[in-house]
Amino acid sequence: MRIEKAVKRYGTKTALNVEGIEFPRGQICAVMGVNGCGKTTLARVLAGTTRPDEGGMILDAGETVGYMPQRSYAFYGTLAHNVALGAKGRRFDERCQELVEALGLSHLERESAKKLSGGETARMALARVLAGTWTHLVLDEPTAALDIPSTLAAERLMRDYCTEKNAGIVVVTHSVSQARRLADHAIFMDGGRIVEEGPAAAILSHPQTPELSEFLAILGS
Ligand SMILES: Nc1ncnc2c1ncn2[C@@H]1O[C@H](COP(=O)(O)OP(=O)(O)OP(=O)(O)O)[C@@H](O)[C@H]1O
């Protein structure tokens, strides 16, 4: 999955203006930056839910993308039904069961999904996307509503998915510590553009641009 160029404008505002990004299989890439810098717009372009004004996302033959949007959605029916929607044949199979257990949702399997809390809905949505077989995942702040134990469980599942399926995973996150724990590669955005990117451990320890240096300094990282 890659972008040679993608530009998205809303009126006179350019929300996204990026070029030359690749998301190789077998790697987790963290997308970071302040509110409004274009992270979700990039995620939506990659997921195919926003049509750019110029350019776009390119998939090679056989590549497929699973998407977890920033606002997790509950479909009608039980939590188990919702997770099964992501699985092959829409069956609540062994894989769904494993995911539900790993995310601490087993006791809610038969609950109506519409009644779940924000954090429970987010965990259900993560289980739903991880139940599928995709070559790439685009996850927009998948752990923003999660407590620390659930966040760590979710990170383990993302890493396992990347390794077992040789998947390329794009994770939008506001957490520098999450990016350090989870990501192989990091992209830092500002004003719709990518201002710095590279191996996550390197750029988050030794930023090369004033924008990323300031971002890390403000966060006290
Ligand atoms: N549908 C829209 N109509 C108008 N402006 C939009 C729309 N979607 C996004 N924008 C604008 O584009 C810019 C980038 O938004 P985007 O949601 O991609 O930012 P973000 O980095 O994901 O922010 P956050 O961290 O708050 O989620 C913002 O200025 C936003 O107001």
Automatic annotation (TrEMBL):
SMART domains: AAA. GO terms for molecular function: ATP binding; ATP hydrolysis activity. The keyword NADP does not apply. Residues 1-216 form the ABC transporter domain. Coiled coil: none annotated. InterPro entries: AAA+_ATPase, ABC_transporter-like_ATP-bd, Metal_Ion_Import_ABC, P-loop_NTPase. SUPFAM superfamilies: P-loop containing nucleoside triphosphate hydrolases (SSF52540). The keyword ATP-binding applies. Pfam families: ABC_tran (PF00005). Transmembrane segments: none annotated. Keywords: ATP-binding, Nucleotide-binding, Transport. Belongs to the ABC transporter superfamily. This is ABC transporter ATP-binding protein.
